[in-house]
Amino acid sequence: MAKQFTYKEIAEHNTEGDLWMIIDGKVYDCSKFVDEHPGGEEVLLDLGGQDATGPFADIGHSDDAVKMLEDLYVGDLDKDSEPVKRVEAEPSSSTTGGEGNGALILALLIVIAAVVIYYMNQQ
Ligand code: HEM
Fold first, then answer.
1. Domain count of the chain?
2. Membrane spanning segments where (predicted)?
3. For residue 43, what is the enclosing H or E element?
4. Ligand 1 pocket residues where CB is under 6 Å
5. What is the pLDDT of residues 62-107, one digit of tens each?
6. Which of 5, 26, 85, 86 is the most buried (most CB within 10 A)?
């Protein structure tokens, strides 16, 4: 019987050199395949340690692509294990957006102040 991995164990393999992925309840080690993926590294890295069943199917991968999975197979997902919540990078990016707005408002204030000073000096 194939080795079973929990969601938590799989989630730990989420870096470029150590990248696992779940597709249709099976676990694949994509570490060596990342560089070769015709769809690029980024999409695989984004899904590292997670269930990629949906995204993999959405692309409509060819039979050749499905065949490639056989070489990457390391075991099965323990479906009874507790799913791991993905930590989104959202808050930090929205903070950056906020800072960006702050800088824009400051720049606008400086321009307005410069215009006011210019007109005051005209009189
Ligand atoms: C280990 C799993 C995967 C394997 C073995 C694999 C393999 C391949 C292969 C062989 C192709 C070339 C086109 C084809 O033959 O279908 C391809 C294209 C592509 N793959 Fe994957 N893929 C995997 C996972 C993923 C995942 C999880 C995504 C997530 C979105 C993805 C996104 C894409 C995209 C965007 C393309 C380009 C499609 C195009 O330009 O027409 N792949 N993949």
1. 2
2. 102-120
3. helix 41-46
4. 21, 28, 30, 33, 37-39, 43-44, 47, 52, 55-56, 59, 61-62, 64-65, 68-69, 72
5. 999 999 999 999 999 999 999 998 766 555 555 555 566 778 878 8
6. 5
